[in-house]
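dumping this here before i forget
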Amino acid sequence: MHADLIESYLKAHGVDARLVQESYEAITFGFGSGAAQILVPDFQLMEARKLYERTGWNFDLSEVDDEDDESDE
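structure:
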């Protein structure tokens, strides 16, 4: 549910966000507890992060891949 909310918020602000959910747990356990990712184009990544930070939401972002960001610096 949190991922749906974030995806909708980003889209409403012009970010081309795509929600990707792993469905293994949903099939195995019969409920939607699988991990979710919200993908955005590289050129909109900083904008998406700023929008997310502005909301004050504190959802788990432990799966954020910052490897590419570090190599650009």
